[in-house]
# Entry
Amino acid sequence: MTQEKENDFNNNTGGKPSRPKWIVYLISLAGLIYLLNPTAGIFELLPDNLPIIGNLDEGAAAVAFWQGIQALRNNLKNK
# Structure
């Protein structure tokens, strides 16, 4: 494997191929929209009244949003 292709493959992600930036940003935006309006929005993935697992969908949305923020920060830092 050439050095350029190896750098593209690794891309500072521990050997995992990187995702397209627009997909990361789109998922992050969806997570933000879900967090801003979780129960009166378009849909509720898991009803909040379910014991223990009721808030997992909000947690997943928060993680998706945070990953988008981290990707944006890394993108700005590398420029």
In short: Residues 56-77 form the longest helix (22 residues). Residues 5-10 have pLDDT under 50 and may be disordered.
